[in-house]
Specification:
The complex is a heterodimer of chains A (about 750) and B (about 290). Chain A is mainly alpha-helical and about 750 residues long. Helix content of chain A is about 50%, strand content about 5%. Helices cover about 25% and strands about 40% of the residues of chain B. Chain B contains 7 helices and 15 strands. Chain B is elongated, with a radius of gyration of 29 Å. The chains are: A mainly alpha (about 750), B alpha+beta (about 290). Chains A and B meet through α16, α19, α20, α21 and α25 of A and α2, α3, α4, α5 and β7 of B.
């Protein structure tokens, strides 16, 4: 983190224009005391585009490193130093708040399927590094291969860079294994939570540099109140961290452009991003487009001729690019890959081949099933509008609306309020954010990119959206204050205008908070008011969830069937929670004796309890259970706002008789173990969809099945048996507890 | 030049700028009010989202209402489809596997549809319910109609069927996923590029032969995109054909037939040599 936030201005600005004071007393609010607005007020849509050529554009020569720019910072004036400290203090405060919120929220978030893979390999990577540090493990091709690589494309999870896995593994090793400060899962998730705090802080710093502290602080608050990023930040996965490190690279790049310092930091952030997730491979496109746009504007400064023709123009552009910030380009190009290689031992030999394998894996990634607008998608071409519609339905409503206003402000001229902002504005922060968001989400408009991850795959676009929203809110609030000031003189007082802006900001953040916190811990089922919440999204056929995380919400229900000590285990068909079952057991979230029955049909046949995590393409698991248990009736349905997330079935005590001629039935091959790999789905062999209708069912261990109430009998209230700590938002609904009836039998329908 | 344009041209640049700024401020004030209203609406809508879906009390009352006049052989459906687990939680004991995996609902004389949020069962669109009640947001509709009289079906006849052709598996009676719905059907998996013929030698025909077919299993449909084909012959004459694409779901076909016993032959094909794992599943009924 920089110590020179906000920008080290060449000349000290006048105290009343000091940027950090904007939150308490915005410059525009002060301007409201004058009858006519100043020409410097933001949002002038009729002015030339800020993305192309803003009215306040400085001389092109200022884009090149100014000769007057100090190579070592000069002591800042006291007012500016105080302002910087306030900005940094607020950034740290909001960052800490974000980390705390993530850590609090993740307590009820289930263990994601991919997370289990990363936890396992993170421990493995951490063990290697620890062994190397102790001198127990030699740095050799053999030990690296056995920990980080292998012949297969997914051996040791080598299809994903190791940074977050390693850090999570080290955190779990230290904070849980050695210090016992945190449980295993929280310790592994802590790095991601800390990075989310860093993201919030960096958004504040970026916004403060570009548009003032009020915009920065509000943008940070809006980022904090985004339901899905909050959810992802609480997992030991990559989607939260890559958002942070993507934006950290953007921030450091912008800072280096504006100040001429810290190019190495941009390169380092880029390297960390590369070592986190392959999205980072797209970052050069965003930064490159922005850099070339600046160079294009600066070309006149470096052109010594005006020869026509594309070649001459390209030459002038190349010259301008070479003189703009060559050190920054070099840092990104050299330091980024160097950090990646340094952090990924698998790249320490056969580097080119291993890099090629890594990228090839993602270029040929399987298309998992994913529901979108009522259709199940698992093969290209995908709808071009997935990123737009999904963003429209998952970002808090007011944030979306304000971002549209902010984008309009970006398109208009936004004159700087002080020299620092003038320097920042000259480097086109809006264009940079647009490039960042466009590159992050762009591949999903092509129709060929897998869509199964929904918004998490373009989450790096969200900081841009939040900054636009904050700018839109602040600009709108200031305009409203001036409008009120013309009608009622009282409103011309700066404090009233500031109060209006603050009220608008608070209401917006509060609304976003409601949309963010309401669906937790089921963040993947979070849909905004425009979608109608989870029920509206279900009506529209939007993806309900993935990764099996909601199974965490039925653990208390399943625990009711735990056998007494010494009794035979109760086998549970855990469906998509199968990879997480061991973690839940280690965390003590399921009592001993509730054993994972295994996968697919074999697991169902063995089980006496069964879960189905509801996704459209998982309906087949319901049907397999119906056949095995002889009933279509679940005994418990976990819901979010009435929308089913997970069903729990209990095998009736009496198996159902066959419903079809025995001679027509056949046994199926044994279930093949699915292959798991990171960011993945459960791969199921085709032969698994085999029939078991009417087969003799194994009884399995005894269960305490709950059945339906007697016909025409008023039903008792929901079970009040102890089901502690049910996650917030989950409906504690279950079938009423009544004496068990015989299992329903398959009967021939009428007309036969 | 019109008078307003002339007036505009006469204004000093400063005045024009001031007017423009005022207009912007007015627009900003309107937008601020709009944002405040939107924020309040979004929070309210989100907080009340759960209230738009009936809870268990409503479902219990609705279930009691259905149980009071339910008859064996009635069909119970739920709408929209996503509420199906909750419906089965309360009334699943009245839904046998065969009814859950029905070919269609024509053979059911009484159909109960329990729906929420204004949904209805699409296959009953346009029909008039004999009974409509609303209990706490759960709408109960009962449709009474003359059921189709089924004379024979492929599931019943499967034990005596004669099968030929190179196949990877089947035929077998299964409860499979087709188009994300449960279907009780006869499944056969032809070898890639091959065909399997299933002959039902003494099939009792009525006036109409109705069937459905599709490709089972979402994972094989995803991994192999080639279609399957189905052909139905009555006494050697082709009466129906269906192309079964990976996204086609449960495809209906029908043919008029002469009542009486006949040999009905179903030919399932995986036309392409790449078409492995085509889990072709069909149901076939003769109706009076």
């Amino acid at each position: 983190m920089s110590s020179d936030e906000p920008n080290q201005a060449p000349a000290p600005p006048a105290p009343e224009r000091s940027e950090p004071s904007a939150l308490a007393q915005p410059a525009q609010a002060r301007e409201a005391s004058t009858p006519a607005p100043p020409a410097s007020e933001p949002s002038a849509p009729s002015a030339p585009s800020a993305l192309a050529q803003p009215a306040h554009e400085p001389e092109a020569s200022t884009l090149a490193p100014p000769a007057s720019e100090p190579s070592t910072p000069t002591p800042a004036p006291p007012e500016l130093a105080r302002g910087r400290r306030r900005v940094l203090a607020l950034a740290l405060l909001l960052g800490a708040l974000a980390t705390a919120l993530v850590l609090h929220n993740q307590r009820d978030v289930g263990v994601a399927r991919d997370e289990t893979v990363y936890l396992a390999y993170g421990a493995r990577y951490a063990a290697w590094w620890s062994g190397v540090a102790r001198g127990d493990v030699p740095i050799s091709r053999a030990t690296i291969t056995s920990h980080f690589g292998g012949a297969g494309a997914t051996d040791n999870n080598r299809e994903h860079p190791p940074l977050m896995k390693t850090v999570a593994g080290l955190s779990a090793r230290g904070l849980h294994g050695q210090l016992r400060w945190l449980d295993e899962l929280t310790a592994a998730r802590l790095p991601s939570a800390l990075l989310h705090g860093l993201l919030v802080a960096l958004i504040l710093l970026f916004g403060a540099r570009a548009w003032g502290l009020s915009v920065g602080a509000l943008a940070a608050a809006l980022m904090l109140m985004m339901p899905r990023p909050l959810f992802h930040a609480g997992l030991a996965c990559f989607d939260g961290p890559i958002t942070t490190l993507w934006f950290a690279t953007v921030w450091a790049y912008f800072r280096a452009l504006a100040t001429g310092r810290g190019a190495w930091l941009a390169g380092a952030c880029f390297g960390l991003a590369l070592a986190t997730k392959h999205n980072a491979l797209l970052l050069p496109a965003a930064l490159g487009a922005h850099y070339l746009a600046l160079a294009w504007r600066a070309r006149r400064a470096t052109a010594d001729d005006e020869r026509p023709g594309a070649a001459a123009a390209a030459l002038r552009l190349a010259r301008a690019a070479a003189t703009l910030r060559p050190g920054l380009v070099l840092a990104l190009a050299a330091l980024g890959p160097a950090v990646l290689v340094a952090l990924w031992p698998w790249l320490w030999f056969d580097t080119a081949a291993h890099l090629r394998d890594w990228i090839a894996f993602h270029l040929h990634h399987v298309h998992y099933n994913f529901e979108y607008l009522g259709e199940n998608w698992n093969a290209p071409p995908f709808p071009w509008h997935v990123a737009l519609v999904t963003t429209w339905f998952t970002v808090p409503t007011v944030t979306l609306a304000a971002s549209l206003i902010g984008a309009r402000v970006w398109l208009g001229a936004s004159p700087p309020r002080d020299d620092a902002q003038a320097r920042a504005a000259a480097h086109r922060p809006a264009l940079l954010l647009v490039c960042s968001a466009a590159v992050a989400a762009g591949p999903f408009f092509l129709g060929q990119t897998p869509i199964f991850g929904a918004e998490k795959h373009w989450e790096p676009a969200m900081p841009s959206l939040c900054l636009a929203a904050a700018l839109g809110l602040v600009t709108t609030g200031r305009q409203a204050a001036r409008w009120l000031g013309r009608r009622w003189p009282r409103w011309r007082k700066p404090r009233w205008a500031a109060a209006l802006v603050a009220t608008l900001a608070l209401v917006a953040v509060a609304s976003a908070a409601v949309e963010t916190l309401h669906p937790q811990p089921y963040g993947l089922t979070a849909y905004n008011a425009l979608a109608g919440g989870a029920p509206g999204a279900a009506d529209r056929g939007m993806n309900r969830q993935f990764w099996g995380v909601a199974a965490r919400g039925v653990l208390d229900e399943v625990a009711r069937d735990a056998p007494p000590p010494g009794a035979p285990p109760v086998w549970v068909y855990t469906h998509d929670a199968s990879p997480a079952w061991g973690v839940y057991a280690r965390l003590g979230l399921i009592p001993p004796g509730l054993q994972d029955a295994g996968l697919e049909r074999a697991g169902i046949e063995r089980s006496s309890l069964a879960l189905v995590v509801h996704e459209r393409h998982f309906a087949r698991h319901d049907y397999l259970i119906w056949q095995a248990y002889g009933t279509v009736q679940p005994s418990f349905v976990l819901r979010l706002d009435g929308v089913p997330l997970v069903s729990v079935y209990r095998r009736p005590p009496v198996p159902a008789p066959p419903s079809a001629p025995a001679s027509a039935l056949s046994s199926s091959p044994a279930a093949t173990q699915p292959s798991l790999h990171g960011d993945g789905d459960v791969e199921v062999d085709a032969t698994l969809d085999a029939p078991i209708m009417g087969e003799q069912l194994n009884d399995g261990p005894a269960t305490r099945a709950r059945a339906h109430p007697p016909e025409s009998t008023p039903s008792p209230p929901p079970s009040t048996s102890p089901t502690p700590s049910r996650p917030a938002g989950a409906s504690p609904d279950s079938a009423p507890t009544t004496p068990a009836r015989p299992a329903p039998t398959s009967t021939a329908p009428p007309g036969r | 030049m019109s008078p307003p344009e002339a007036r505009e041209a006469l204004r000093a640049p400063e005045e024009r700028e001031a007017l423009r700024a005022r207009a912007e401020d007015r627009r900003g004030a309107a937008l601020a009010a709009l944002l405040l209203a939107l924020a309040a609406w979004a929070a309210w809508t989100t907080a009340r989202a759960g209230a738009t879906v009936p809870g268990d009390d409503a479902w219990r009352r609705a279930a009691a209402e259905v149980r009071a006049s339910f008859r064996s052989g009635d069909l119970i459906e739920f709408a929209p489809p996503w509420i199906d687990p909750v419906g089965r939680l309360h009334l699943g004991d009245l839904i046998p596997l065969d009814a859950a995996g029905r070919m269609d609902d024509a053979r059911f004389g009484r159909v109960w549809v329990l729906s929420i949020r204004g949904a209805d069962a699409p296959e009953l669109a346009g029909a008039r319910p004999a009974l409509t009640r609303e209990l706490g947001g759960v709408t109960i509709r009962r449709y009474d109609r003359a059921p189709a009289v089924v004379l024979d079906d492929a599931a019943r006849a499967l034990p005596t069927a004669q099968t030929s052709g190179v196949r990877a598996r089947g035929p077998e009676l299964v409860l499979a996923e087709l188009g994300f719905t449960p279907r009780r059907c006869v499944q056969v998996v032809p070898a890639p590029g091959g065909a399997v013929t299933i002959a039902f030698p003494k099939f009792t025909l009525g006036a109409e032969l109705v069937g459905y077919a599709g490709l089972a299993d979402i994972f094989t449909r995803r991994d192999v995109r080639d279609p399957g084909e189905l052909e139905v012959r009555v006494n050697g004459e082709v009466v129906a054909r269906a192309r079964l694409g990976v996204d086609d779901g449960w495809v209906r076909f029908a043919a008029a037939t002469q009542p009486g016993p006949a040999e009905v032959t179903v030919v399932a094909r995986a036309p392409s040599p790449r078409a492995r794992d085509r889990l072709i599943c069909f149901a076939l009924e003769s109706r009076r």
